[in-house]
Amino acid sequence: MSLLTSRLYLLPYPIYNGVSTVSASLSGGGVLTIALSIPAASGRTIKEITRVGIASTPNNYKVVETATGLYNSAPIAGSGNSVTFTTSLSEYTSKTGLSVTLSGTATSFLARYFIFLVTLDNGDQVYPIGVRVYVAA
After folding, report:
1. What whole-number distance in Å separates Cα of residue 133 and Cα of residue 75?
2. Which residue range(s) make up the domain with 104?
3. pLDDT, tens digit, for every residue of 10-48?
């Protein structure tokens, strides 16, 4: 298994404690977008995000190695060297049963990390580091 280089949108918090971080705004509708990509020089393309899981640590890849208990089990098609996963804070609450809190401080993070299983065009599967979500007003 290898790690996938990721490019993340909805920043202002690109890295927090060594973990890729995106932000979502409650006032902006709570839309959350995570874009993953691999370098064009790799010679590979992304076929799909095969599974999306939720974990309490950023490196718990076991959550996407099983077909049950997933956040999203429907494959998300890639496009060349990138693939985008979109969800919302309300969907997160609905699927996990965890509330979204907003303290306005550095502790305004979702309680779980998003974990991905990505399949490349040659069938290899890679696990990018988990992604943390900062919740802004």
Report:
1. 22
2. 15-136
3. 233 355 567 888 888 888 888 999 988 888 888 999 999
Domain tally for the chain?
A: 1
Give the N- to C-terminal CA distance of the chain in Å, as an integer.
37
In a domain, residue 95? The reply is yes
**Contact call for residues 49 and 107 (beta carbons, < 8 A):** no
Tokens of 71: 């956040």
Cβ proximity of 30 and 22 under 8 Å:
no
Q: Whole-model pTM?
A: 0.84
Residue 40: which CATH number? 2.60.40.10
